[in-house]
Amino acid sequence: MSLLTGMLQLLPPETAHNVTIKLTKYGSPLLSKGFQDQSLHTNVKGLSFSNPLGIAAGFDKNAELIDPLLKIGFGFVECGTVTPKPQYGNAKPRIFRLKKDNAIINKLGFNNKGEKRFVKNLMSAKRTGVVGSNIGPNKDTKNFIDDYLKIYKKISVSCDYVTINVSSPNTETLRELQKKEYLEVLLRDISQIRNEATNRKPIMLKIDPDNTNDHYSMILNLVNKYNIDGIIATNTSLSRPEILRDFNKKRDGGLSGTPIKDLSDKVLKFLYQETNQELILIGVGGVGCASDVYNKIKLGASLVQMYTSLTYGGPQLINKILIDLVKLIKDDGFANISEAVGVNNK
């Protein structure tokens, strides 16, 4: 951990995040360049990734850090969650560090500056890599599904892929959209809009880690029925594993970081086994080192995202993971990372 990262951890979590945003945005010329190696290059759904490691939604909520995040080593950036109208989110304090557990609990509630600012930032970025947009509804809207359709039309033309976030635990009743009767309407209508577009963009569905295999099977059936391109597994968790030691463990919100790694991996493993390798999977949850990334890839993820571990490890963690990942690939005799997808889950 660098001195700067250590100093940021002395600040309240949300203050530290806002300072990090400003340092990343305005200090980008000083940022070191990300590690590159041909063995990490991969192609997914016609998109070319310099490496399979991306930053998960939640860090760059307003699409203002795309270029610096790509510069420091991420193979792709997922911005958002963005909603049609700006919103404050839930009351503060709403981010809690669990230092003893290398984890965070957040109950932010889709705080963001809205779609107009988001699209403006997307359009002004140089975008030397893949950029995704994570979309959600405003919490006070009369119809969640209408919000998704509205913002999808606005956002999809300006990014490389779109993620439908129906799994955040911090917007009241949002996870109800994962029920069959609601999810079918949402996926049917959004796929129809996509199919009518001249420039078809991949659609990902982000799901939670707290459900049953029967529930995930239902989701897979709908994803296949409406030709959704992939699934992101998983969002934060409402569970509180017994291994948690930090005094903040009883806070309300979604748990992320090391304690949910096994939970997320279990979902990822099931999805890959059920899809016959036909669906794009992005693994996220508990990624803190190269072996965590590699394990998700060998379980079936074509791409992997991280976020929480950066809070504790700082930006230098990105290059360390990429360098170590190359070593892991070569030790297994692979020429390219794509050869490792699903090898431990067939």
CATH architecture: Alpha-Beta Barrel
CATH class: Alpha Beta
Percentage of residues in helical conformation: 25-40%
CATH topology: TIM Barrel
Number of strands: 13
Uncertain segments are: none
Describe the 3D structure.
The chain has 346 residues and is an alpha/beta fold. The protein has a single domain, classed as TIM Barrel. It is built from eleven helices and 13 strands. It has helices at 3-8, 13-26, 66-71, 115-124, 144-155, 180-196, 213-225, 261-275, 290-299, 308-313, 316-331, and strands at residues 42-44, 47-49, 53-55, 76-82, 95-98, 103-106, 130-135, 161-165, 203-207, 230-233, 254-257, 280-284, 303-306. The strands form three sheets. Strands 3-4-7-8-9-10-12-13 form an eight-stranded parallel barrel. A three-stranded antiparallel sheet has the order 5-6-11, with no helix packed on it. Helix 9 packs across helix 11 (316-331). The chain is globular, with a radius of gyration of 19 Å. 48% of the residues are buried. The model has no long low-confidence stretch (mean pLDDT 95).
